[in-house]
Amino acid sequence: MNEQELLAKRFEAHRSYLHSVAYRMLGSTGEADDAVQESWLRLSRSSSGDVDNLRAWLTTVVGRVSLDMLRARKARREDFEGTTHPEPIVSEVSEENPAEEAELADSVGLAMLVVLETLTPAERIAFVLHDMFSVPFSEIAAITGRSADAARQLASRARRRVRNAAPPSTTDLDEQRKVIDAFLAAARAGDFEALLDVLDPDVVFRMHTVEGDPRARPPAVGAEEVAKQALTGGRAFAPHARPALVNGRLGVVTEIDGKRISVMECTVRDGRLAAIDLLLEPLERP
To answer: How many structural domains compose the chain?
Structure first.
């Protein structure tokens, strides 16, 4: 094995970790793939013999690449109408071993992804690297071009924005599936009372879409209000909805004629739906 092949083997050992870092910073699997590939290109052109801690070195590179991509994305948003649309990782539920499927999916929730999109590029980088991957502020400072204290302040501001974005959910996939199946059955049948039974009295329903979408609605709070919205706005789509893994949690994906309409993340607590986050696919422009 020559030196380049050995370097490639060492890099592959970190690929999954690097993709996880990049996905949280970028919210897009495609862009995360690009960031990881760019980190390999930079490694292959570097004097790798001088790198003592390859994992830390690669994390710094992915952070810098992701920061550049976020800044470019922000500039595009300012030049063109619209906002970035998060890309949750959706996978089928395996009847044989759903727990294994959940482990394979990325763990950052849809609600968290949506909030991360509201942060500045530097805030997002600082928060993700420090709070999710324990990268020291001294290293984050080098990535963002600021002092360690400034990097700490970036993460602190982001933390305040992100707080409560991802309410805790039961980790029991069987319980999650039971609750989601009951919710879908009630929605399909138009059964208001059955919906109330499966919804927490203080349930919160949030709809996420791009800026300017006419379907946007303010959050609905309370079982009765959420049940009404499920019957008025969601009943027509309920027959096309099915359980799926959404970033590691059981949720719901709705497709019509092979086209994805929406992805829903469900927070299940004490046998009921405590929070629903619905991400609508952007409308096609005429």
So the answer is: 2
